[in-house]
Amino acid sequence: MKHLVRIPSPLRSYTAGAAQTYASGDTLTELLADLDSAHPGMCFRIIDEQQRIRPHIRLFINTREVSSLGAKLAARDEVHVICALSGG
Amino acid sequence: MGSTLWVGTRKGAFTLRPDAKRRAWRLAGPQFLGHIVHHVVQDPRDPRRLVMAAKTGHLGPTVYTSEDRGRHWSEAKAPPAFRKVGEGETPRAVERVFWLSAGHASEPGVWFAGTAPAGLFRSTDHGVHWQPMAGFNDHPEFTKWAAGFRTPDGELLHSIRVDPRDARHLYVAISIGGVFESTDGGANWAPLNEGVAVDFLPDPNVAYGHDPHCVIQHPAAPDRLYQQNHCGIYRLDRPARRWQRIGQKMPKSIGDIGFPIVPHPRDPDTVWVFPMDGSKVWPRTSVGGRPAVYRSRNGGGSWQRLDKGLPRAQAWLTVLRQAMCADSEARIGLYFGTTHGEIWNGADGGESWRCIARHLPEIYSVTHAV
Question: pTM (2 decimals)?
Answer without folding.
Answer: 0.96
